[in-house]
């Protein structure tokens, strides 16, 4: 309906109501009497018509979208009608020998509110109940009848022209909310009742509206939701809501990261700020998964300058643009720097030019099977690259150097893990003779990193399957990239020099269970997207190991952070390995590296016993 047509119809409707209401009111108040003067009533009707349209214009009654009428619109109607009745009463009093039919005017006021207000709200009810309901709305169940759930319900009901979701039921484990209603939507049961409620109410969509779910609770809810055919979404995490990144109405798909997520660690903000705020921080591998997240986390502590060092031009460009856009109103100086850690001269040049206070060394080759096929490149990047950056830090007096290591450095059986252990040994040796505090931080697989199984599984599901898993018993420890990055930064504050910090990785997860969850979350079944077992790849372990009791000091030094035991390192063996790098073939290189690590492991075991 055009504005002109709509305006004309509303004016015509109001004119009929206003013109006739005073006659009806007069007859109701003074039935079958000759008290009333017809001339006075006619004059009052004309005055009412004029004043009503005048005040309707003042309060913009003809410009409002009545399909979304609420208390504000009702107040505008009441004000316009009240003022028009008062004005008409004054005219009646002055033109009717100072006689006022007050009771008739009061009834007229009531009729105006009922008929004019009702005509507006009838349209909203008709639209919500019939026009909207006739569209293909998805019947939606909301899990959680708390503040967040109520907000979701209200927004879905008030914005039905912008969403395809129609809330029809709540579920909540709170006994006090059972059989209650929120915005006319009933609470029909508990989480365990989701499957039967979904079947009974023909639910197409489920929204999990509990932003502060404790560890493991989301898995229980998803298990129940997976027994239905409904699509499942959830509101953002509590930290995203608190920081203002998103609002509660921004629904998102449930990701594997949400299912594996753990209780958030409270960081020691003061200690981190003390050595980051206002200082120059350098991050190598800044364009990578861990490096870029380290940069994001560090920016929240307002460093004076942050150096984004990386070999990949495009990845450095991406994180540089992201940070500059987000922090364009700050005085933080963001420096994108292209440089390969294998280029010793370039690393010394960068550290000399910018004099960083802290270096986070995240640059590394991490893909296990690829490094099995390319051991020389693994040594050049992971060992020699680390040595170059670490010695530059030592030469120019950097305060702290934090090496991002891997749990695969624990009793390594592959090239990647071995080179990461050698990198740890390089900085341990440097720490004994340097003013710089050198530390390493070990953790396991991070969800969403480049080369991780999650992106691979998603691509396989998009292609229609099958999802390939190496072995049904293959088990890994997982951590989200933000959590790992936060703990790396926190570990840096604890550094006294020479430590190997070990992050608590939580409970191990079977890769096949990860694949099954991802298939279900993608809206498929295992019958539609099969799982195939391809066999263990070169260099892989069936089970990743965390440090045993004799390899870690008892007790956490900080929440989810432990300190591993170390022994004195014979760095001459590593130097000899580097000198002979181009003179040995791949097999001989592997043997030499394993010999160094085995010797060190034997000493460590002896020390522990």
Helix vs. strand class: alpha/beta
Assign the CATH superfamily of the largest domain.
NAD(P)-binding Rossmann-like Domain
CATH class of the largest domain: Alpha Beta
- Number of distinct helices: 21
Helix content: 40-55%
Widest beta sheet: strand line-up: 10-9-8-11-12-13-18-21
CATH topology of the largest domain: Rossmann fold
What characteristic shape results from the CA principal axes?
Answer: elongated
Largest sheet composition: 8 strands, mixed
Unreliable residue runs: 242-246
N-to-C span: 85 Å
| Rounded radius of gyration (Å) | 35 Å
Keywords: Membrane, Transmembrane, Transmembrane helix
Family: Belongs to the polysaccharide synthase family.
Organism: Lentibacillus halodurans
Domain Polysaccharide biosynthesis protein CapD-like: 281-563
């Amino acid at each position: 309906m055009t504005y002109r047509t709509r305006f004309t119809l509303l004016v015509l409707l109001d004119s009929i109501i206003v013109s006739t209401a005073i006659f009806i009111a007069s007859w109701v108040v003074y039935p079958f009497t000759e008290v009333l003067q017809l001339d006075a009533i006619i004059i009052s009707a004309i005055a009412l018509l004029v004043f009503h349209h005048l005040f309707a214009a003042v309060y913009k009654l003809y410009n409002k979208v009545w399909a979304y009428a609420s208390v504000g619109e009702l107040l505008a109607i009441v004000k316009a009608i009240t003022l028009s009745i008062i004005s008409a009463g004054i005219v009646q009093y002055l033109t009717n020998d100072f006689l006022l039919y007050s009771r008739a005017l009061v009834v007229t006021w009531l009729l105006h509110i009922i008929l004019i207000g009702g005509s507006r709200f009838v349209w909203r009810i008709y639209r919500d109940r019939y026009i909207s309901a006739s569209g293909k709305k998805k019947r939606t169940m909301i899990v959680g009848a708390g503040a967040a759930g109520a907000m979701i319900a209200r927004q879905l009901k008030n914005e039905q022209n912008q969403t395809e979701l129609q809330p029809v039921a709540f579920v909540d484990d709170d006994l006090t909310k059972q059989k209650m209603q929120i915005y006319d939507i009933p609470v029909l049961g508990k989480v365990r009742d989701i499957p039967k409620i979904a079947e009974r109410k023909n639910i197409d969509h489920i929204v999990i509206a509990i932003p502060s779910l404790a560890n493991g609770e989301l898995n229980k809810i998803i298990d129940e939701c997976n027994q239905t055919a409904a699509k499942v979404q959830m509101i953002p995490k509590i930290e995203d809501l608190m920081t203002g990144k998103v609002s509660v109405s921004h629904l998102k798909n449930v990701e594997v990261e949400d299912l594996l997520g753990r209780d958030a660690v409270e960081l020691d903000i003061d200690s981190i700020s003390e050595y980051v705020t206002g200082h120059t921080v350098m991050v190598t591998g800044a364009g990578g998964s861990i490096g870029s997240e380290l940069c994001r986390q560090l920016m929240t502590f307002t460093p004076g300058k942050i150096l984004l060092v990386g070999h990949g031009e495009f990845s450095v460009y991406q994180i540089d643009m992201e940070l500059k856009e987000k922090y364009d109103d700050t005085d933080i100086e963001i420096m994108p720097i292209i440089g390969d850690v294998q280029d010793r001269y370039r690393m010394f040049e960068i550290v000399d030019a910018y004099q960083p206070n802290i270096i986070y060394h995240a640059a590394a080759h991490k893909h296990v099977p690829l490094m099995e096929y390319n051991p020389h490149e693994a040594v050049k990047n992971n060992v020699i690259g680390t040595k170059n950056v670490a010695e530059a830090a030592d030469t120019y007096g950097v305060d702290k150097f934090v090496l991002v290591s891997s749990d695969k450095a624990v009793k390594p059986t592959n090239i990647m893990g071995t080179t990461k252990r050698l990198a740890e040994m390089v900085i341990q040796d440097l720490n004994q003779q340097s003013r710089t505090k050198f530390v390493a931080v070990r953790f396991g697989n991070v969800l969403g990193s480049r080369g991780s199984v999650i992106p691979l599984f998603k691509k396989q599901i998009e292609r229609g399957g099958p999802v390939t898993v190496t072995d049904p018993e293959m088990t890994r420890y997982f951590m989200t990239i933000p959590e790992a990055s936060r703990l790396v930064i926190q570990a840096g504050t604890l550094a006294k020099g020479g430590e190997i910090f070990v992050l608590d990785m939580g409970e191990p997860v079977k890769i096949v269970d990860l694949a099954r969850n991802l298939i279900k979350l993608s809206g498929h079944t295992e019958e539609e997207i099969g799982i195939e077992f391809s066999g263990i790849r070169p260099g892989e372990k069936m089970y990743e190991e965390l440090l045993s009791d004799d390899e870690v000091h008892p007790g956490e030094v900080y929440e989810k952070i432990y300190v591993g035991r170390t022994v004195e390192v014979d760095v001459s063996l590593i130097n000899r390995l580097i000198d002979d790098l181009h003179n040995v073939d791949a097999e001989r290189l592997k043997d030499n590296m394993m010999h160094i690590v085995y010797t060190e492991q034997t000493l460590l075991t002896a020390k522990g016993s």
